[in-house]
Amino acid sequence: MKFKNLACALLVVAGMASCTAESDAPVNNEETTVSLEKTFNARSVDYQEGGKNSLNLSELTPVSVEEANNILKVLREKKNAKTAHSVSAKDGEPGQTFLTVSAEQQIDNRHKLTLQMTMITYADDGSLYYKDYHAFAASDLYKWHMTGFGLSTAGSEGMYKIEGTSNLYFKVVEEGVHYIQVPVKVTGNYNPKTHEANFTYFI
After folding, report:
1. Helix, strand or coil for residue 17?
2. In contact, 167 and 181? CB cutoff 8 Å
3. How far is residue 166's CA from residue 201's CA, in Å, rounded to a whole number?
4. What is the pLDDT of residues 35-76, one digit of tens each?
């Protein structure tokens, strides 16, 4: 499959990735346990250490409701936002190269969210394939987890549009320990010619 036919394949891959990511995420409770719900649509989620869940939320540093609220306010307002992107290459099988394309959002010189995509190129014909994605936060106070991701064509310049759904997770202490999930929408762009990528998020 050449890159020009990538869009159709991406829909299938994105759907599979979405289903897989969702199966690893905690399950929503019907009731919220903290006051973050009204402002950030937060939900308390069930989490059992040692289960199939791959998020390791128990490793988070506990925060108060006020601390979680302050972090989310800064992230929502995108204070002093700085963006960056990078590309690194690693040889695979003969004639095959893995490209790690990273896009970064740094907020208020403290909070950093990074979205990574893995692409595969082939030297014989220059074809390009989308492989997978990862998302993470450079903090022990919260985790960022994508639950769905996709690329679609955007205009006639060969650009691709990034669209994703995700959650931030906190370990909140208020009359006990609660794991809190906050929905985050992600949009961005990817240039297959230069491998430049960028994204923004909405809380």
Report:
1. helix
2. yes
3. 9
4. 798 999 999 888 876 555 568 899 999 999 999 999 999 999
Q: Provide the pLDDT for residue 25.
A: 53
Give, for 172, the enclosing helix (H) or strand (E): strand 160-173
Which of 63, 62, 121 has the alpha carbon at shortest distance from 88?
121
- What the block records as the tokens of 133 is 């994605």
Amino acid identity, position 59:
E
What per-residue confidence (pLDDT) applies to 100?
A: 95
Q: What DSSP element (H or E) covers 67?
A: helix 65-77
**Identity of the residue numbered 56:** N
pLDDT digits (tens, 9 = 90+) for 117-137: 999 999 888 888 889 999 999
The sign of the dihedral angle between the CA atoms of 26, 31, 33, 35 is: positive
Question: What is the Cα–Cα distance from 68 to 135, expressed in whole angstroms?
Answer: 20
Asked whether the CA dihedral 81, 100, 87, 193 is positive or negative, the reply is negative
pTM, 2 dp: 0.81
Instruction: Write out the H or E segment, with its range, that includes residue 11.
Output: helix 6-24
Give the separation between CA 68 and CA 29, rounded to whole angstroms.
19
Residue 15: DSSP 8-state: H
Spatial separation of the C-alpha atoms in residues 119 and 98, rounded to whole Å: 6
**Residues pairing with 200 in the sheet:** 187
Element (H or E) spanning 54, and its range?
A: none
